[in-house]
Amino acid sequence: MELRQLRYFVKVIEFGSMGRAATELGVVTSALSQQISRLESELSTRLLQRSSTGVLPTDAGVAFWRQAQLVLRHVDEAGRAAQQARLSGHVSVGLAPSTAAVLGLPLMRAMRVRYPDVRLHLIENLSGHLTQMLNARQLDLAVLFQSEAARRWSVMPLLDEALFVIGSAALPGLPTGHEVRLDALGDLPLILPSGPHGLRALLNQSFQRAGLTPHVIAEIDGLALLMDAVCAGLGATIQPGSAAARLPQAALRLVPLADDQARRPNLLVSLSDDELSPAALATRVVMTDVARTLVQEGRWTGARLHEN
After folding, report:
1. Torsion angle in degrees (nearest 10) through CA of 19, 24, 28, 32
2. β-bridge pairing 303-305 and 153-167
3. DSSP 125
4. Are 246 and 126 in contact (CB under 8 A)?
């Protein structure tokens, strides 16, 4: 017997209808009916009388409904008691500059609302440096872009980001269409991160598949300076949409890459669960929730939630 089955049953009695209860619960009617049938099978008794006009509880259903309400009330009270205990502690989170531009402030706000006594330490750095810090146990959590993980890491795919050609509208040769393929960028002057950078490694692989040698005129390993150079019209860059999150929308043109493989995975990486404090475990859940909300509300340009 599961708590959700009790909640489902109470809602069905409340509305007197499988369909209306399913709508309220946000599930399909067939799934709701299946859960109620499983509950009846487990109890070996009929709890509901079904008809064309709705459902009514049997005598056994009424008795079960009263006890189910009591159980759910105790569960809710237990949850409130846990929340009132106010989780406290310290957690360190590493974000790459482009990720921090989108996720940083929303994460801080969400943590202040949910866990005001948890002290959040945010570190903004290149993903390669964050990997080293995580291995050195200087971070609890980080959003990384490569899947190579230490044996004791916990790795959860979070989302994928589309890559964009980003540049000043006045830059000669900047694509003007709704999207562009890598093999059309041969002469475009590019400003990219250097070789060891995770994004550059991804781009090198994509250019190699396209049989193209990019025209790289400069390498900059700091996002702020890189985007300053792009805004100044010195060249274009290839970055996720989050790289332009701190810039005025009219300052740059973003043209999505059409290549299917030109996407950057975002992985929520942490120390193993048995090494994480309760504060860190709670923060990981908040990070996942905040990222999901940003994507669903269209506030993370070019991002889509991971299918799993």
Report:
1. -80
2. antiparallel
3. -
4. no
Query: Are 282 and 116 within 8 A, CB to CB?
Result: no
pLDDT tens per residue, range 57-81: 899 989 988 888 888 888 887 777 6
Q: Enter the pTM of the model.
A: 0.69
Q: Which of 53, 89, 43, 196 is nearest to 132 (CA)?
A: 196
What lies within 8 Å, CB to CB, of 50 at 6+ separation is: 18
- What's the CA gap between 189 and 185, in Å, rounded? 9
Q: Strand 117-124 relative to strand 190-192: parallel, antiparallel, unpaired?
A: unpaired
Per DSSP, which regions of 7-152 are E strands?
Answer: 48-51, 54-57, 88-95, 117-124, 141-144
Q: pLDDT per residue over 223-249, tens digit each?
A: 999 999 999 999 999 999 998 888 876
Residue 123: closest CA among 145, 107, 147, 146? 107
The three-state secondary structure class of 178 is: coil
